[in-house]
Give the backbone structure.
Amino acid sequence: MLDLERARQSADQKIVPVALEARPGPIDLGGVTVNTWSYGDAVPGPQIRLRAGDLLRADLRNSLPQPTSIHWHGIALRNDMDGVPALTQDPIAPGTTFRYEFTTPDPGTYIFHPHVGTQLDRGLYGALIVEDPAEPGDYDDELVVVFDDWVDGTGRDPDQVLADLKANGMGGMGGMGGDMQGMEGMEGMQMPQSEALGGDAGDVSYPYYVANGRVSAAAQTFAGKPGQRIRLRMINIGGDTAFRVGVPGVPMTVTHTDGFPVRPVSAPTVLLGMGERVDAVITLPDQSLPLVGIAEGKGGAAHVTLNVGPRSSTTVDAAVADLASRPTVAAVGLVAAEQVVLADKTPDVVHDLEIAGPANRYTWTINGQTYDASRGLPVSEGQRVRLRFVNTTSMFHPMHLHGHTFQVRNAAVPGPRKDTVNVLPKTTIEVDFDADNPGQWLTHCHNIYHGEAGMMTVVSYVG
Ligand code: C2O
Ligand code: CU
């Protein structure tokens, strides 16, 4: 066993066993039945809950027709359990089972998903909640909401979407079916735009958006009472869509992003890039209202109904219109809570990641190159590392780092601790982390189509 993993394990460590099966099958999104791939018979898959310091033992049975893996997004775990085929493990062959076993060191809101091809944009995901045994928990109840954009099983699957993007370039209208093909090259065909995202809102149009696997017409209901304080754990697992989340007229007190605490701030809406998470506390109003996730810039939404009794006269459409007109807070601008601020230190190594694309219709690159596991960004254990994400493109890129939680560098105040940071067009974001978890760790855009079209590289511990 790795020394680091041994050091994370206490003598009385609790083992949390989980059995997962990745499998094809029909899923009801709420009046829309799709043939997709999921963990078990529901989307999202089973919610995994354990405490910081526990050992997760997850047996994954692969009943898919393709190899697969699971990546435990955001967890600083042992490298050989990180779920990246070729880099950290062999792909899990169809018909076989693989045991993931690792200590979960840090409390927070996480997500698990495959790291093979475009599988993430099917129904293969589930929330992973690591509770803090030491946290006061100043709330009455919790609601985990996973927002997703949905195309699989609607006449196309994510592999076809990627193939179309590569064949036709951006504007590949993912969900529109074959009869839109002729329009893709037409002049005046606009990319969806968003002011909050500073430019293009995405490459793919989706026919559906879901919250906890349900379209708005058949939204999930969360039962509560007026005045209750609810901790929202909100996750964006979309393939190509940022979500603007909020409850009309009900301010959210943002408390965490990507698992780590921030100085609490009140916001009407929060913007989540793909792979980002935000926790916020709300006080339930005295009438039922939707917790909405707007597909930013794309004209669609999903929600969960907060049911406190009397129905509000606010329709979901009115809620969406209201929230779309409000200011939105980007997680990158939050301030780290004092106890998670990294010690002040000059970086030992600085790596630039110049993000560019698309070229050749649909190639996205980092430092001019598409993903090659044998080429990476060298770091050494013990170093303070700075990554500079330089976005030269007209689209946002939620850049994710495996196995670490970095600190975003902001002008005057300590930026938030995060593992996924939304880098807006023509901007540069610097992040710092301590190289304290040896291994080979992907860093990539969490737009699944950008990642698969090349926008990935490796933070590589050497010597
Ligand atoms: Cu959630 Cu490498 O990703
Ligand atoms: Cu990207």
The two ends are 19 Å apart (CA to CA). The first helix runs from residue 3 to 8.
